[in-house]
Write a structure and sequence with these properties.
There is one protein chain. By secondary structure, this protein is of the alpha+beta class. The protein is 37% helix and 12% strand. The chain has helices at 4-13, 20-31, 38-48, 54-67, 135-139, 151-157; strands spanning 71-72, 82-83, 89-94, 100-104, 129-132. Bound molecules: zinc ion (ZN) (2 copies). The site of one zinc ion has 7 residues, from helix 5.
Length: 158
C-alpha cells in the first residue's frame, strides 16, 4: 500500500495533481505482481472505481510515464507493460506466455561496450532481455504449442 501522504509527495515531485483516481491506479501498478499491462491494471482498478473506463486508465498511465513517475518495460515487447521496480535490473522474458520477471543486475557481469555507439548514441542505462521459457510454461505439455526451432540443437547437446 502507498500512503496518501507518500503519494501526494511523489505527485508533487513530478508536478502532477494528486487525484484519488491516480492514487488508486498507482497503487494498483505497485501492488500487481510482475509487470502489469494497462488491461490488467484496469481490471483491478475497476473493482474500486466501477465507473472508470479503460481509456481513462490508459490516459493516467501515460501521464505517469510522461512525468517519470512510472517507467515502461523496454518497448519492443509489443504491448505496453509497466515497470514497478526502480532498481537496476534485467528481464527474463517468457516467449510463450510473455511473462516478464526481474533479474537483479548483480546476476550479470556489468555490460561494457567495446567501442562507441554509432551516430553519437548516448547510453542512459543498459537492460538485458533474456528470452526463454518460464517454469510454468516448461511444465506444461508442449504438444500443440509452438516448439522452438532450437529444440533439436538443445537435445543434441545432452
Ligand atoms: Zn511462460
Ligand atoms: Zn522489471
Amino acid at each position: 500500500m502507498v500512503a496518501s501522504s507518500q503519494f501526494r509527495e511523489l505527485c508533487h515531485r513530478h508536478s502532477l495533481a494528486a487525484t484519488h483516481q491516480r492514487q488508486v491506479i498507482y497503487e494498483t501498478v505497485m501492488s500487481l505482481p510482475g509487470h502489469p499491462s494497462p488491461e490488467a491494471i484496469y481490471g483491478k482498478v475497476r473493482k474500486k472505481i466501477p465507473c472508470i473506463s479503460l481509456a481513462t486508465v490508459y490516459k493516467n498511465i501515460q501521464t505517469f510515464l510522461d512525468s517519470g513517475m512510472l517507467r515502461e518495460v523496454s518497448l519492443h515487447h509489443g504491448a505496453m507493460r509497466l515497470e514497478p521496480n526502480h532498481e537496476p535490473h534485467h528481464h527474463l522474458v517468457c516467449v510463450r506466455c510473455k511473462s516478464i520477471e526481474d533479474l537483479d543486475a548483480g546476476n550479470l557481469h556489468p555490460v561494457r561496450l567495446r567501442q562507441k555507439l554509432p551516430r553519437g548514441f548516448q547510453v542512459e542505462r543498459i537492460a538485458i532481455d533474456i528470452l526463454g521459457v518460464c517454469r510454468d510454461c516448461a511444465s506444461k505439455n508442449p504438444s500443440g504449442e509452438k516448439t522452438l526451432s532450437s529444440k533439436n540443437h538443445l537435445s543434441g547437446e545432452q
